């Protein structure tokens, strides 16, 4: 099951017109997701991780690049499809949204929300659909008697379960989960992480798990990609990203997550995240990087395989010198 | 450091009924609105059953003339007296209520149907389509609508249907604007995006995800439209352009009453009072409902 | 030992709803000495924010009603203080910062004007001195080009910058007590680290006492001398921070700590199921006063826990827990 590539993103860019000019929220990103794999996508607000996730669902229109989705009949480029031609492929890629409050229509009952994809993709109708709704609700840990309830009668965690059931109804191969636990209480977050992991094991799902919560990403993901101002700056197996981050931004992120048992002073970055309207030249991180040298302000580093399976984009590291030596 | 957000208690977890019945409960707490609703209900019941009852009681219909007793003072036979043609005023008032309320309701329904569809399409698809559709609304707004209606009614045969069309031509513009504004906000809600990812068509999204969520303000505004439609109908009928005699409406009755005002004032006072009370009650009711629905 | 600067004793706050009086805070007590930092940890609905807002009587009333208790600040009961006395304290000796800085900054007033209003009122500075003081405070808060920022409006700033302005403003009157309510929740991880570092630095510099309220145990671990864990409007555990994390004495605290995935673990191979607290946070209007509020979700609940409210018992040096287990 594992191994075969499911989704292959190549040089993808997504642009917006924002206050102050054009923003290239995603700028030449390449990523692969394999069948049954969980890819964690990490970064801070404005880094483009949500825009990238939405591009895969075609909730926005890429300005350049390809999103190849591998079907049994060969690859299809989602970036080139529209309307009617896109519709049959939508089934295979579903989304779980961040906000469990605004992602459910307040005027629809839980049952109607979960039933809708079954009807619109012509998967089931009538009695058959009702049976499937009940089964889906059980699979996500909701009592089927809740089907007549309205979203406002549910807690945040329960609503997120409804959102997961809706995504699951279409029997997708890939679920893009955009900050699915960010809005939930701490004691509920573990429940949802366990649910997502359980469903993956049961249905062989692949996830693109978008989050700023490195603890959750480290737990759920097989591989992690780190984004900064529209670029992927590091990808590595999940175990490596926690124990041996290479790119300075990843190092700062990891140290900022104060591990509870280890009360350590985080590595504090200077300055704020620059505006994506007018990103820094060269390496986009050089304005905040404690190891930046003159070269970093004009030369844009490429993603290089530093160690097997571990890619980083940094002018100061190379396969020969994976750690930055401090300044002379 | 002045504004403080109210502490978030999770009272959304409380067991509750659907959104509509919650709104209903909040509404009942408003006394003026509930009182207005009660009066409106009574007027509606009278409009439905009243003419039948007076027929059973005294054999009166809205057009039956009692030539012997023209401009009669109130008697047990004619509790509000008769008009200049000897018709029972009470029966005419009750029947007129039926006509006026029907006109108000139908004209509003037509306006809402057109306005919701138009506003939803413009707001949802946006871009050039939205631009073009809203410019058309602006143009219609700037026309002297009353003159338009008068010309329309003067040119064509005056029919009940034409009257409704004339009233609705003006009424849908506001609704379309309100709905478009709502839709512009709603179409970026995550549940609308979610609907796109689960393969719902544009039509399905508008019908199931967008329009139901605009209904609160639409119903509220629609209810406020009913009294203004009734008033417009009365005005047109007063000018002789609306409902055509011998069929009575509040406007027709007021018009007839005004002609006999000097000799027999009750002919003007009674229908005018009925209309005023009904409209005030309707406004209270609609205003209360609007506040409740906008609170959602 | 000196008297505590702030001491809350037996505070009870109710919240009037359609369904009756919800006990938002049920007998909360804690105290904090001059110059120390106390961390209040809890999920939404735990009563931590209501407790904070009660200190300066900022809770909306109705629907909130303070039922009983004392809030002693410098030995004076704030619950008995007049509105006039409270106004003198607010922004003067006691300052607050909130999760969303925009909600506490006036959008149409220049930042300098808002800061000057405070210092002129509470410190009696004249206009030029107040202006100079605000710029100095902004500089201390790490704001680049403070003179220019001071003449601007809040909406021009990023979230992290706004929170810096809030902190500069809150500390500009040299308050004795700073109440920080989820000050970093809305911020990105690397910015969170910066803001916490700033609060820590200014606290050490000025000797301000801090009440730090958060749902994030990690934030508290690096900041607080003492921790109070709240659940369902009650204090479930209180202990010195190091002791609490090393030796959590209450089942709720233990469960919460266990349910957070560890970012540092290598986690190779098969993923272990994350420990999860079952069930949902309690509904305040629907609580049984004759049982432990956590009993329905507690992994260690016994029959006794369902029969009587648990006692608040000492379990170690300066370490208390609300649980029947501690009694045994």
Q: Could you state the order of secondary-structure elements of chain A as H and E?
A: EEEHEEHEHHHEHEHEEHHEE
Largest interface: A-C, 46 and 46 residues
Based on secondary structure, the structural category of chain A is alpha/beta
Number of strands of chain B: 0
C-alpha end-to-end distance of chain B: 28 Å
Helix fraction of chain B?
A: over 70%
**Terminal Cα separation of chain A, in Å?**
50 Å
Number of helices of chain A: 9
Q: Which descriptor suits the 3D outline of chain A?
A: globular
DSSP helical segment count of chain B: 10
So what's the overall shape of chain B? elongated
Stretches of chain A where pLDDT is under 50 for at least 5 consecutive residues are none
What is the string of helix and strand elements of chain B?
HHHHHHHHHH
Biggest sheet strand order of chain A reads 6-7-8-3-9-10-12-11
**Could you report the average pLDDT of chain A, rounded to the nearest whole number?**
88
Number of strands of chain A: 12
Low-confidence stretches of chain B: 1-16
Commentary on this structure:
The complex is a heterotrimer of chains A (328), B (296) and C (328). Chain A is α/β, with parallel strands linked by helices and 328 residues long. Chain A has 9 helices and 12 strands. An 8-stranded mixed beta sheet of chain A has the order 6-7-8-3-9-10-12-11, sandwiched between helices. The longest helix of chain A is centred in the middle third of the chain and has 18 residues, at 186-203. In chain B, 72% of the residues lie in helices and 0% in strands. Chain C has helices at residues 48-55, 83-89, 111-123, 127-140, 146-150, 159-171, 189-206, 217-223, 241-246, 251-258, 324-327, and strands at 6-17, 20-32, 37-41, 64-73, 76-77, 94-97, 177-181, 209-214, 226-231, 234-240, 312-316, 319-322. The chains are: A alpha/beta (328), B mainly alpha (296), C alpha/beta (328). Chains A and C meet through α6, α7, α8 and α9 of A and α6, α7, α8 and α10 of C.
């Amino acid at each position: 099951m594992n191994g075969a590539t499911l989704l292959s993103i190549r040089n993808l860019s997504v642009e917006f017109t924002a206050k102050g000019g054009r923003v290239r929220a995603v700028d030449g990103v390449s990523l692969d997701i394999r069948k049954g794999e969980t890819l964690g996508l990490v970064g801070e607000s404005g880094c483009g991780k949500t825009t990238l996730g939405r591009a895969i669902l075609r909730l926005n229109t890429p300005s350049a690049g390809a999103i190849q989705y591998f079907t049994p009949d060969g690859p299809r480029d989602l970036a080139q499809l529209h309307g009617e031609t896109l519709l049959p492929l939508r089934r295979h890629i579903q989304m779980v949204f961040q906000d469990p409050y605004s992602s459910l229509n307040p005027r629809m009952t839980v049952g109607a929300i979960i039933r809708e994809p079954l009807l619109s993709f012509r998967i089931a109708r009538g009695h058959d659909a009702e049976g499937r709704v009940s089964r889906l609700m059980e699979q996500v840990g909701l009592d089927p008697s809740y089907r007549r309830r309205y979203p406002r009668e549910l807690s945040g965690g329960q609503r997120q379960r409804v959102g997961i059931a809706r995504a699951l109804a279409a029997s997708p191969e890939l679920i893009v989960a955009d900050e699915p636990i960010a809005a939930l209480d701490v004691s509920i977050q573990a429940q949802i992480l366990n649910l997502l992991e359980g469903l993956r094991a049961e249905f062989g799902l692949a996830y693109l798990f978008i989050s700023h919560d490195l603890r959750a990403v480290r737990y759920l993901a097989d591989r992690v990609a780190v984004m900064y101002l529209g670029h992927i700056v590091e990808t590595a197996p999940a175990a490596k990203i926690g124990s041996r981050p290479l790119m300075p931004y990843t190092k700062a992120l990891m140290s900022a997550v104060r591990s509870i048992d280890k009360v350590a002073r985080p590595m504090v970055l200077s300055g704020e995240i620059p505006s994506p309207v007018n990103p820094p030249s060269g390496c986009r991180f050089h304005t905040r990087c404690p190891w930046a040298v003159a070269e970093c302000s004009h030369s844009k580093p490429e993603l290089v395989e530093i160690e097997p399976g571990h890619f980083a984009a940094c002018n100061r590291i190379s396969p020969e010198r994976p750690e930055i030596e401090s300044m002379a | 450091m002045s504004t403080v957000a109210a502490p978030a208690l999770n009272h959304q977890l409380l067991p509750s009924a659907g959104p509509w019945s919650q709104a209903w409960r909040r509404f009942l707490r408003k006394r003026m609105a509930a009182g207005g609703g009660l009066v409106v209900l009574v007027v509606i019941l009278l409009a439905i059953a009243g003419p039948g009852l007076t027929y059973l009681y005294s054999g009166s219909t809205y057009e039956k003339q009692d030539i012997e007793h023209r401009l009669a003072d109130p008697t047990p036979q004619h509790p509000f007296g008769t008009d200049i043609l000897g018709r029972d005023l009470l029966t005419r008032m009750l029947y007129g209520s039926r006509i006026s309320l029907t006109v108000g309701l139908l004209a509003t329904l037509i306006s809402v149907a057109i306005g919701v569809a138009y506003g939803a399409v413009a707001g949802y698809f946006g871009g050039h389509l939205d631009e073009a559709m809203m410019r058309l609304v602006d143009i219609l707004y700037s026309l002297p609508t009353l003159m338009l209606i008068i010309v329309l009614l003067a040119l064509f045969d005056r029919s009940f249907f034409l009257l409704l069309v004339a009233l609705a031509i003006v009424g849908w513009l506001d609704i379309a604007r309100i709905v478009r504004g709502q839709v512009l906000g709603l179409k970026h809600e995550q549940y609308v995006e979610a609907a796109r990812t689960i393969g719902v068509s544009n039509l399905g999204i508008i019908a199931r995800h967008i329009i139901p969520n605009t209904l609160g303000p639409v119903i509220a505004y629609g209810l406020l439209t009913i009294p203004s439609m009734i008033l417009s109908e009365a005005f047109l009928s007063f000018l002789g352009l609306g409902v055509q005699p011998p069929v009575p409406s509040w406007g027709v009755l007021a018009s007839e009453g005004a002609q006999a005002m000097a000799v027999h004032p009750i002919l003007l006072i009674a229908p005018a009072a009925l209309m005023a009370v009904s409209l005030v009650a309707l406004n209270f009711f609609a205003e209360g409902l609007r506040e409740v629905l906008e609170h959602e | 030992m000196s008297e505590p600067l702030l001491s809350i004793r037996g505070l009870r706050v109710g919240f009037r709803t359609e369904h009756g009086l919800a006990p938002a805070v049920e007998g909360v007590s804690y105290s904090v000495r001059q110059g120390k930092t106390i961390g209040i940890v809890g999920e939404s609905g735990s009563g931590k924010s209501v407790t904070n807002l009660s200190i300066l009587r900022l809770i909306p009333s109705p629907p909130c009603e303070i039922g009983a208790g004392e809030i002693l600040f410098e030995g004076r009961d704030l619950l008995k203080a007049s509105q006039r006395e409270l106004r003198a304290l607010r922004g003067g000796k006691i300052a607050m910062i909130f999760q969303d800085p925009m909600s506490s900054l006036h959008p149409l007033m220049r930042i300098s004007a808002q800061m000057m209003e405070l210092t002129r009122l509470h410190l009696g500075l004249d206009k030029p001195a107040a202006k100079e003081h605000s710029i100095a405070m902004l500089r201390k808060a790490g704001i680049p080009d403070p003179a220019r920022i001071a003449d601007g409006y809040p909406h021009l700033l990023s979230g992290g910058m706004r929170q810096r302005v809030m902190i500069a403003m809150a500390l500009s009157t040299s308050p004795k007590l700073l109440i920080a309510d989820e000050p970093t929740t809305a911020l990105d991880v690397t910015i969170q680290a910066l803001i916490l570092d700033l609060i820590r630095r200014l606290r050490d510099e000025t000797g301000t006492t801090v009440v730090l309220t958060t749902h994030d145990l990690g934030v508290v671990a690096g900041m607080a001398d003492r921790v109070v864990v709240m659940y369902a409007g009650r204090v479930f555990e209180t202990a010195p921070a190091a002791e609490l994390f090393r030796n959590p004495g209450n089942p709720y605290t233990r469960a919460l700590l266990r349910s957070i995935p560890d970012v540092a673990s290598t986690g190779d191979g098969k993923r272990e199921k994350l420990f999860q607290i079952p069930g949902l946070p309690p509904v305040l209007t629907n609580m049984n006063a004759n049982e432990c509020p956590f009993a329905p979700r507690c992994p260690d609940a016994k029959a006794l826990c369902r029969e009587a409210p648990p006692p608040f018992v000492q379990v170690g040096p300066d370490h208390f827990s609300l649980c029947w287990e501690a009694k045994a």
